[in-house]
Write a structure and sequence with these properties.
The protein contains eleven helices and ten strands. Strands 1, 2, 3, 4, 5, 6, 7, 8, 9 and 10 form a ten-stranded mixed beta sheet that branches. The chain starts with 9 loop residues before the first strand and ends with a helix.
């Protein structure tokens, strides 16, 4: 790891899009950090509300703030713009409807310097508007001595997740790595590559980042075609692990199948089954092919039972709520689908 001074510059990147109700709190939490050697890069991604004005007003208040306005292109493109400009020794991302504890950057920088770490991760508070829950924490501080150790927890635990927030990155990790030009799950597309470049990492265990799951946010959005990129992300992860960390292959073998089933569930929970029927049937076909692949990979057919848990698909949801009027029409088609899935379970 590069040797830094005791007071390295940290670039904090904030993509901004139509969050006027939350933006003030977000920026304020960054400006008031106990660690002061920061540059704050606010990227207005074509907002149509008062966000551009709010950003400009904060720029006048604090000389560490830079503001950039661009045509809407998604969070990935906004982050890339800032990454190309950032001068920091370390990089951190904050989503514009979230906020951070006043000492988050100080705690993470101290850990990075003390342990010569390429990456520092903290736990998170999840605020759904009703209650706040602590997540993404292992219960104790962890020092990862290799990329393999980091990757193992990434693919097998809940405390290293794909989101770029709640992390402090050595800037060099982003050399030759940028977010893809997609509008959904762009973080899952590259997180394994960033982790794979780390020689040492830290999980502080402290919850220092608060993610606000507002109505309409990416995390609470209903199913749409763009969600299908999750399947490609799962495939990329599996190929990357097989090539670079073969000892972890078994931990990602079932991920693609799990993601396919989760998307099938999301279609149902979105209450738009008929509108998304084409995607549902496409996912069914992908699942059938994936099970054939798992047959060949596992050899021992007993291992296939691992997938049964994610194949318990709640078809009764399709006969509830807005689908009641279609009950009779659905019976035959649902029976055929249930039989197909049942057959897969019984392999």
């Amino acid at each position: 790891m590069k040797n830094y001074t005791e007071n390295p510059l940290v670039s904090i990147i904030v993509p901004v899009y139509n969050v006027e109700q939350y933006l003030e709190k977000c920026i304020k939490s960054i400006v008031e950090q106990t660690y002061s050697n920061i540059e704050i890069l606010l990227v207005d991604d074509g907002s149509s509300d008062s966000c551009p004005q709010i950003c400009e007003e904060w720029k006048k208040k604090d000389g560490r703030i830079q503001v950039f306005h661009k045509k809407n292109g998604g969070q990935g493109s906004a982050r890339n713009l800032a990454l190309n400009i950032a001068k920091g020794d370390f990089i951190s991302f904050v989503d514009s409807d979230d906020y951070i504890d006043v000492d988050m950057i100080e705690v993470m920088v101290c850990d990075a310097l003390k342990h010569q770490a390429n990456l520092v991760i903290c736990g998170m508070h999840i605020n759904n508007g009703i209650r706040v829950v602590d997540v993404a924490r292992p219960g104790k501080k962890i020092i990862y001595q290799s990329a393999s150790e980091l990757m193992k927890d990434y693919v097998s635990t809940d405390w290293i997740f794909t989101g770029p927030v709640n992390k402090l990155y050595q800037a060099e990790l982003f050399e030759k790595i940028r977010f893809p030009a997609i509008r959904c799950n762009e973080d899952a597309y590259i997180m394994h590559e960033l982790l794979g470049k780390c020689k040492r990492g830290i999980h502080t265990d402290r919850c220092l980042y608060t993610q606000y799951l507002r109505e309409g946010s990416t995390e609470k959005s209903l199913f749409s075609e763009k969600n299908m990129v999750l399947i490609e992300c799962a495939e990329r992860l599996r190929e990357y692990i097989q090539m670079n960390f073969p000892e972890l292959k078994s931990l990602v073998l079932f991920k693609k199948a799990e993601d396919i089933v989760n998307l099938m569930k999301k279609i149902v929970y979105s209450h738009n089954f008929f509108r998304n029927k084409v995607f549902y049937e496409k996912l069914e076909r992908k699942l059938e092919r994936e099970v054939v692949f798992l047959e060949k990979e596992c050899g021992d057919m007993g291992n296939i039972r691992k997938i049964q848990a994610v194949l318990k698909f709640p078809y009764f949801y399709l006969i509830c709520w807005e689908f009641r009027g279609y009950m009779n029409d659905l019976k035959k088609s649902m029976k055929r689908r249930i039989i197909r899935i049942k057959n897969i379970r019984e392999i």
